[in-house]
What does this fold into?
Amino acid sequence: MSDDAPTILPQERSVFEQPSTLKWIWRGVPAACAFFALMNIVLAILHKTHPHFTIDAFPVFYGVVGFVSFSFIVLAGQHLRKILMRPEGYYDGEEGER
Amino acid sequence: MIPFLPSDISPALLLIVAGILAAGVGPVARGVIGLVAVALSALQLYALGVGTMEAPVIYGDTSIAGFEIIPLRMDKLSVIFATIFHVAALINVIYGWSHAKRIEASMGLIYAGSAIGGALAGDLITLFVYWEIAALSSVFIVWAGGGHAAFKAGMRYLVIQVLSGLLLLSGITVHLMGGGSTAFDLFQLSDENGVDLAALLILLAFAIKAAFPLLHTWLQDSYPKATAVGAVLLSAFTTKLAIYTLARGFAGTDILIPIGCIMTAFPVFFALIENDLRKVLAYSLNNQLGFMVCAIGIGTPLAINGASAHAFVHIIYKALLFMGMGAVLVRVGTTKATELGGLHKSMPWTTVFTIIGAASISAFPLFSGFVAKSMITLAAAEAHMLFAYLVLLFASAGVLEHSGIKIPYFAFFAHDRFAPSNTGKQRPEEAPRPMLIAMGLAAFLCIFIGIYPPVLYGLLPYETDYHAYTSEHVATQMQLLLFAILAFMLLVRFKLYPDEVRSVNLDVDWFWRVPGRKALMGAVHGTAAVWHVLWYALQNMVASVLRWLYATHGPAGVIAKNWAVGYTALTTAVVLAAVLLGVLFT
It folds into this structure.
């Protein structure tokens, strides 16, 4: 994240910027991850899952795919900038900036 | 049936005529004409009825110059696309109620009409006509963005769209010369004799408008340069008409599976590094089209249902996302992530609606993407295509990254750049009311389809007993999304998520916008130089001929010399003698 974040007054913070809300999110999301992973494991034990391949029979396969894919996209994708990034106005000059 | 209209009139014509009328009236009348036209057109579509895939209902079947023309072919595939185009047209009319320029309101109706006409066309010639009307009407919407950059992007857009039209016309010509009929049905791209040229040309025409990889850049180039209203219009029609034509003409064509996989995967990376959030949405659009193309390649009834359902819900939530960013553009003047943040404090409704669009495109349960996209991944799984399946899952995580998180996060949360204590100004206002109504309608549809999918499944081309809401499906999808969100939180926490940077990122259009342009200009200058050389050589030659003539015939020339009277008499006598001698001896 950018460090040039403007500082704002405490009274200008919304509920989404309160530390208590952020703390709640930091607890809620991992808990929800655990819940659905557990749900999938239970479904697998009860033979209520219908895998189409060998690999997706692994109960938390989708969680792993989500986590790894997302991380890969962000970590690998940003290096594309080294090849593709040009200054604004590269094609159309100043008048292209809107 | 509409009492004062012929019973078999095309809904497309109603919208096209309304578009022409709208060009000549004021802003409120334009909106009223748009609403009435969309309502009449939808009524007409409903009155025409719908046949099955095997036995479509046909209207206006006629023969022109020996070619069979079928202006209206009503089966479940054509009607689901015509239906969603009506929904998109309605949303656009409302969204642009106070902000659409004259040309946008007018061309927008013509553009919507052409997409509906193309979807209902039963023959290739009618399809070609609407294909071209769509290209020509939509370019005005790009140009309406204003400025030289939009004009140039519009020109590039036009060249590429016209190229698609030419390829389609060439394909149709080759097809007809080879003894094919004008009917627009399934093509065989290849058989034991090799690749069919007509089918290849037609597929290429569709590929351009469906923004296949390497042919895609017109989309990311032009859509973000349109106005707030224009981008919403553009997002709905051209590419989805192309998806319809692919589903009609090339269902089950194997090559579409890897093409679709590439289409879903590569835009994910471009969207990550892009700063302009409307351009992020344009890449996201490309990624979504990939899901549909992949499904069309798989070609089973479930897959075609999946492609149609996905196109249907996609048009709504993509329009919703473009509307959210359009509202930001109207209020802030930019959609660059580097200049946005914290807008949820003063644009709460826009924030909520955009998040509903983001949840829908990310395929969260209870939102429309969930009930549609899962049909495509299931179709890949049932066909035991592991690679395609994995790519589609990967791309699903990618969708969450750029459309699910990046768009709402950077526009409405992230860093508050509009705090009055810093800017000394009021925060940007909430979106104008017509825009909020249009966004609200789209958001309602996203949720309604998400919680009551039978309303969508009843429209699908093939009978289905598909159930999206199984405990397994909910558990797997929620895992994929929540673990991806967890990854996002960790990446942000450890400062591994890339900063937004003011920049332009190159895509394959660089090849024709930089070296291609240089080569073209080189050819232009080279031609001019050769022409100059030839022209000067010609001028010199003409000048020397004139000089020689002047030397002989000019005032001082031999021919122009004054002759003495005696000399003249002598010459005359010689000539007379010669004539007399001639007469004597003949």
User: Anything to note?
Assistant: Chain B touches chain A through 70 residues (CB under 8 Å). The longest helix of chain B spans residues 515-553.
